[in-house]
Amino acid sequence: MSSRNLNKLVKRPDGSKGKSFVLYAQVTQFDAATGECTFRASVSQRRMSSSYDYEHNAMFVAGDADTECKYLDDVVTDDIVKIYVTSMGSYSYDTQVGGNTTVPLFYVDKISVL
């Protein structure tokens, strides 16, 4: 995926629903608030030299989206990961500062910590 195509996906997540991609990400939240099978990450189309270069916010879900997601057991906040994903469209959630945001949502088909 090119940088431009990733920008287009972030702009219109529902337009890529059902399509598969390989993304690189820094896990930014994976805790009791997200649950065992969901995490938030900053993504890019390739592995970046600095964690600050992963510029797009996205949500990821794996397994049954509840507790059956064993391949996420080794993943923690701040990890840099390579993820094989399928786009699930957009996802909206309330932020901690009282706002609301919409981001791409991806199903994790395969993940590896880099």
3D architecture notes:
The structure is a single chain. The chain has 114 residues and is mainly beta. Helices cover 8% and strands 46% of the residues. The chain is built from 1 helix and 5 strands, in the order αβββββ. It has a 5-stranded mixed beta barrel. The longest helix is centred in the first third of the chain and has 9 residues, at 3-11. It is globular, with a radius of gyration of 13 Å. This is Single-stranded DNA-binding protein. It comes from Galactobacter caseinivorans.
Question: Which helices and strands, and how do they pair?
Answer:
Layout: H1 3-11, E1 20-29, E2 38-44, E3 56-61, E4 80-94, E5 100-113
Tell me the overall shape.
globular
Largest sheet at a glance?
5 strands, mixed, barrel
- Which CATH architecture? Beta Barrel
How many strand segments?
Answer: 5
Q: How would you write the strand order of the largest sheet? A: 1-2-3-5-4
Please work out how many helical segments DSSP would assign.
1
Mean pLDDT: 92
The level of helicity is under 10%
Structural class: mainly beta
Compute the gyration radius: what is it?
Answer: 13 Å
What is the terminal-to-terminal distance? 19 Å
User: How many discrete structural domains?
Assistant: 1
CATH topology-level name: OB fold (Dihydrolipoamide Acetyltransferase, E2P)
What is the CATH class designation? Mainly Beta
Q: How are helices and strands ordered from N to C?
A: HEEEEE
CATH homologous superfamily placement: Nucleic acid-binding proteins
- Please mark out the parts with pLDDT under 50 across 5 or more consecutive residues, or reply none: none
Question: What percentage of the residues does DSSP assign to strands (E)?
Answer: over 45%
